[in-house]
Write a structure and sequence with these properties.
single chain, alpha/beta, four-stranded parallel sheet, globular
């Protein structure tokens, strides 16, 4: 319990400091009815009070329970909120591929959030946990986009513990993890492993610096291969866009003019 008290105190201060240092006072986040955004919303409310607002951004494919759970959370913690359907945006650009549609949905939600951030003079607070970030289980310029992220160093399994400590609604804690991008979508079903299995390998590999050989002695080979592949192949999602450094000393005068490059 003391662990979560310290983490709560630290993250509340983190949100306050990261927002106020920009000269702003307000923060917003998308509230899906899932556990990650619920934890962030509670922390942001504790941190910013009335300067925090949550946005429910359902599509025509969002489950009814997701919206209901999000509304119950807002009522319990007295969180100001607004519901904006992204269905018209999705209908304007129909996609027949499930994965592309999910990515587009995530980007439309973030487009709305960033427009609201401009309208309100607020920063967008991210809701991606450490497991998702390491595995690349998220959409660039969609749910991975934010100005600050208070839970990005907490594994998914830790989020469940933290949510219980914070008093997040039981309905949210007990539901299977899902991005709610289409009917019946499940994170663990899509990934092929439970978060308990994934987090165990990720902790050993990332936090304990275990080698692949050490992991293989402890875990199933397919699981290890899956995790390592995801971590390495999705590294680009955890980085800012790479800029070609044309002013670098490594680019010599001869190299430039050999290729008729004029700087």
């Amino acid at each position: 319990m003391k662990k979560w008290q310290l983490i709560e105190k630290f993250l509340i201060k983190f949100i306050q400091e990261e927002i106020t240092k920009t000269g702003l006072k307000k923060g917003i986040c998308g509230l899906s009815g899932g556990i990650d955004s619920a934890v962030v919303a509670v922390l942001a409310k504790k941190s910013l009070g009335d300067n925090f607002k949550a946005f429910l951004l359902p599509s025509q494919f969002s489950s009814k329970s997701s919206v209901e759970d999000a509304l119950k959370l807002c009522k319990k913690f007295n969180i100001e909120h607004e519901t904006i359907s992204i269905a018209p945006l999705l209908n304007a650009y129909p996609i027949d591929d499930k994965v592309r549609f999910g990515n587009f949905s995530a980007r439309m939600r973030m487009a709305v959030l960033y427009d609201k951030s401009a309208e309100l003079g607020a920063l967008v607070i991210g809701t991606s946990n450490k497991s998702e970030l390491l595995l690349g289980y998220g959409t660039l310029f969609g749910d991975l986009a934010s100005a600050l992220n208070p839970i990005g160093d907490l594994y998914k399994t830790e989020i469940f513990e933290f949510a219980e400590y914070l008093g997040v609604n039981e309905e949210i804690i007990n539901k299977p993890p899902s991005a709610d991008l289409w009917e019946g979508q499940s994170d663990e079903k899509e990934l092929g492993y439970t978060y308990d299995e994934l987090d165990a390998v990720l902790r050993d590999f990332v936090d304990e610096r275990a080698t692949k050989e050490e992991l293989l002695r402890k875990y199933d080979k397919d699981l290890v291969e899956f995790v390592l592949k995801k971590v390495y192949f999705n590294q680009f999602k955890r980085k800012m866009p790479i800029i070609a450094k044309l002013k670098s000393r490594t680019i010599t005068h001869d190299f430039l003019y050999e290729r008729d490059i004029k700087l």
